[in-house]
Amino acid sequence: MPATPIASSVRYYRRGLTKVSWVPTIANAAAPTRAELNAGTELSVEVGAVEGWQVTSEVVETPTLGTKFNSKIDGPISADDSSLTLYASKTGTDVRDLLQRGADGHVVWMDEGDTPGRTMDVFPARVLTQAKQRNLEDAAMVQVQFAVTREPSENVTIPA
User: Is the pLDDT of residue 1 over 90?
Assistant: First the structure.
């Protein structure tokens, strides 16, 4: 009998659905409350580009004298260098007011939207920079770079 196939995914287009928020205070990143999430600021409507926000594991080789094969085990876990690039405002009132260098908080990703019962990823983070993007072809933008300060909580259930 063949192996059972994985269930078919319901594919989706991320733009217009995924939500990303800056939440200053979350007591338990593995179980944020609705009140904590509501106290945050949804950034999705101003985000023009995203980099990073992935958790990766390094590999550690475990060679032995008894074989030529180098086996491997999972090693340290880390998060990629991460940033959000948001549109700058001609008035100067934009993300730079909210995400000040040195601010600590949480970047919360709700990939399938803010839908209770679905999942989100919570990245404890510190704002590193507010780099103004300057070129002649695109709308003015500010790239906010983050340091992920603790292990992110992944696939956390979104509360009602």
Answer: no
Phi and psi dihedrals of 36, rounded to 5?
Answer: -65, -45
Residue 105 belongs to a domain with what CATH number?
Answer: 4.10.410
- Ordered DSSP codes for the chain: -PPPPPPPP----STTT-EEEEES--S-TTS--HHHHHTSEE-GGGEEEEE---EEEEEEEE--TT-S--EEEEEEEEE--EEEEEE--TTS-SHHHHS-TT-EEEEEEETT-S-TTSEEEEEEEEEEEEEEE--SSS--EEEEEEEE-SPPEEEEEPP-
pLDDT reported for residue 49? 97
- Domain assignment present for 5: no
What pLDDT does 94 receive? 96
Residue 132 within a domain? yes
Q: Give the domain extent around 126.
A: 19-157
What is the number of structural domains in the chain? 1
